[in-house]
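Q: I'm teaching a short session on how sequence maps to structure, and I want students to see two examples side by side rather than one. Could you give me a first protein with its sequence written out and its structure tokens following it? Keep the formatting plain so it prints cleanly on a handout.
A: Of course. Example one:
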Amino acid sequence: MNKDQVKGTAEKLKGKVNEAVGKATDDPAQELKGDVQQEVGQTQKDVGDLKEAAKDAKKD
């Protein structure tokens, strides 16, 4: 697991929290912020996954 995977997962988690708070408080802006954070986190995690796959491919 590399830093991009960890940071991406953390960002997704923060996004889920913001989305839930936005829904609970009926705040569409915070809900949208949470959605965006989740997408950014997923993208960062995907980059980390690609880096890991490339690293593993080099070992073979």
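Q: Perfect. Now a second example for contrast.
A: Example two:
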Amino acid sequence: MEMKHTRIADDPDDPADLLPNESVLSLDGYLEMQAAVGDRTRFEIVYRLAHAGDMTPTELNEAIEIDDSTLHYHFNKLRDVGLVEKRVRTERDSDGLYAYYSATVLGEVILEHGVEELLHREWDFSEAYDSST
């Protein structure tokens, strides 16, 4: 198993100094994102949106089986930190108007280079140290 370690030359004393001067977010902003996706339900919401594409609250509600008010609570948390976005379709159809949620670019990145990467590394670790082979 090859582990990729990267280090920044001259590691700063203050972790906030790891960010470029023109950073999109502050260190606290990035940590808030990490904390938000650290909740099982919110992780699953972002995961499903990143992998399945746009979904309505009804579709997500059916997929993860939580009540509507709890789902909207989690949507609001994820929207506040910029991991998901809400769009409302303006044209009416036979079912009326729909709100759609999707993962933002930051939502997709935090999955790919955060929790999902750790989960994939677990497979690598298990295969590298499997004593049954």
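Q: What should students look for in example two?
A: Point them to this: The first strand starts at residue 84 and ends at 88. Also worth mentioning: The longest helix spans residues 105-128.
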